[in-house]
Amino acid sequence: MREANAERRRAEAEAETRRAEAEAESIERTATGINGFDQMAMGGLPAGRPTLVTGTTGSGKTVFAVEFLARGIEKYDQPGVFVTFEEAPAEIRRNFASLGFPIEQWEAEGKWAFVDAADSEGEERFVIGAYDFGAMTARIEHAARRIGATRVAMDSLGAVFARFADTGIIRREIHRLTSALTALDVTSVITAERNGEYDGVSRYDVEEFVVDNVIILRNVLVQERRRRTVEIVKFRGAVHRTGEWLFTIDPSDGFVVIPLAFLGSAPVPSSTTRVCSGTPGLDEMCGGGFYQDAVVLLSGPSGVGKTLSSLKFLEAGAAAGDRCLAFAFDETRAQVLRGSAGWGIDLKDMEERGLLRLVCDYPEVASLEDYFIRIRRAVVEFEPQRLVIDTLSALERIGTPRALLDLVIALGAVVRQRRITTLLTSVPISRVAAVQTPSVARELSSLTDVTIAMRYYQTAGAVQRAIAVLQNRASAHDAAMRNVTIDAEGMHIGDPVVLLDSPDTVGMGRPGSGFTGDDL
Amino acid sequence: MTGYAFRLYVAGESERSSAAEANLRALAGALLPGGYELDVVDVMAQPELAEEQRILATPTVVRLVPLPQLRVIGDLSDPPRVANALGLPGELQEARKEKEAGGA
């Protein structure tokens, strides 16, 4: 009995040691260079190993495979071999020129090599007796040696399956191929087809058993919107982020995982500079204006003064010589210009002086992820000191609450990095997704530095406006809920609201709920 | 001028490689009394030749001459089908016998 115990303890101790050794020998990574993917993969793909990337038609497999090589060349000067089973090399060269990948030039420089395994038309082919893919393996090895490749991408195995119907051979040959790739010491990406988005890993259910590392790309419709996600299913015991991450395929940035692509950059020290909000009383309520790197969320029902506040914010920016970038959703350019002229604010003049870029759009023209990329690109190109999005709620219509949160997280990272004072407006309760919105709004407010609420309330038969600063990170602020009046000059913030009874708020969706975090 | 030239792509000196070569030689010897050219390429040693013809599977035999080029993949273990696929003239004795047997 004692012996058995001792034996068990010894076995446990040994297992412990092995685990520790395994952890110590942490898996080496090859950074892909794909926007946001390496953050998700905690460094990159397991080095010197094959990774299977599966997805349905149009899920972005080819883009992933091509970018894996292209970013390797661009960012790390690592040559790569592209094995194509489907598209001809000429098509790939042409299709990816728009992403700025000079594949032909890389071929000439010995950085990129194609192994063309695409089916050529009209070629007679008979299969009589046993065979293997020895020639394909030999060609890949040859190409890899010739250019000194450290990366190989194969797109896609589905095409091989279609051509050679014997899955027994395929399974054995994939194994042989991955062994050959491992022996070459290259990090490789092998793409394969899937039948459905949540239905097995790969079409023939054999590929994933042969490969240690599996990534799934999905392309699903959620609320009639296309939504792309990437998930690392297994990673040879290496740490990675779990779950599905949103990504987009941008016409110029390619594969972009959101929000990871924009996080993790070096933190910028917080700014102590204050900037003017454009509404004098509001500056005072916030302890002397917004911090320069603040992200401000202003929520309020329709017509309460959100757009006026954002126009004043832009005007104050231009007056200080700041460059301002403004996204106005749901209004045409003519409407915005007319509305601002009504307040005596000449946006056209600001544009002519190069102090404003105004983008008016209906969000329905793109997906949320694409919108984020659009906003980010405008930020990078225009280099504004101030950014306005009026309103974020318009974007709610085109994405899930989770996606909207991801967008705000990513946007926060982009603007904080550049110290852009950012004003986001939102409607407290969405007309569309009334149930989910309050909690999203609450989470949103935790991502922003300053949270301001504007509301209607009712006294003695009159509807009035009120404003309150609910949160002002790292700064004192006025806790009062103050009366707001709007006249031809703009918005004026007055005395604290004094009510005999609890405020009967209007336009809140839930009467009598007052100023709480729940209905920002 | 023989009129027939083949190139056989094999991967290393495996049983499958030698079976394919033996099957091809036996068949061509029987059906092409005027002679033929056969060039055996080991893709492990000369991968650039496999690249040139975009060969994936081994063994693969390519009929280079006469045109059009024809390809057959596998160890060529079924002579009548190989003869047919490579467009070789005449009929194999066994095939003829089978036919006669079938007709009787």
Strands, helices and their partners?
The complex is a heterodimer of chains A (520) and B (104).
Chain A: H1 2-24, E1 29-30, H2 37-40, E2 45-46, E3 50-55, H3 61-76, E4 80-84, H4 89-95, H5 103-108, E5 112-116, E6 126-127, H6 134-147, E7 151-155, H7 157-163, H8 167-183, E8 187-193, H9 207-210, E9 213-222, E10 225-235, E11 245-250, E12 254-258, E13 274-275, H10 280-285, E14 290-291, E15 295-299, H11 306-319, E16 324-329, H12 333-342, H13 347-352, E17 356-361, H14 368-382, E18 386-390, H15 392-396, H16 401-417, E19 421-426, H17 437-447, E20 450-459, E21 462-472, E22 481-487, E23 490-496, E24 504-506
Parallel strand pairs in A: 3-8, 3-9, 4-5, 4-7, 7-8, 15-19, 15-20, 16-17, 16-18, 18-19
Antiparallel strand pairs in A: 1-2, 9-10, 10-11, 11-12, 13-14, 20-21, 20-24, 21-22, 22-23
Chain B: E1 5-10, H1 15-31, E2 37-42, H2 47-52, E3 60-65, E4 70-73, H3 79-85, H4 93-103
Parallel strand pairs in B: 1-2
Antiparallel strand pairs in B: 1-3, 3-4
- Strand arrangement, largest sheet of chain B? 2-1-3-4
* Radius of gyration of chain A, in angstroms, nearest whole number: 29 Å
Secondary-structure class of chain B? alpha+beta
β-strand percent of chain B reads 15-25%
Distance between the termini of chain B: 41 Å
The fold-level CATH name of the largest domain in chain A is Rossmann fold
Gross CATH architecture of the largest domain in chain A: 3-Layer(aba) Sandwich
> What is the tally of helical segments of chain A?
17
Greatest contact between two chains = A-B, 25 and 34 residues
Poorly predicted spans of chain A:
430-437, 500-520
Can you give the mean pLDDT of chain B? 83
Task: Sketch the major β-sheet of chain A.
Answer: 10 strands, mixed
The CATH superfamily name of the largest domain in chain A is P-loop containing nucleotide triphosphate hydrolases
Shape estimate of chain A? elongated
Give the count of structural domains of chain B.
1
Number of strands of chain A: 24
For the termini of chain A, the CA-CA separation is 66 Å
> Care to count the β-strands of chain B?
4
GO biological process, one term (chain B): rhythmic process
Protein name (chain B): KaiB domain-containing protein
Pfam families (chain B): KaiB (PF07689)
Domain KaiB (chain B): 7-88
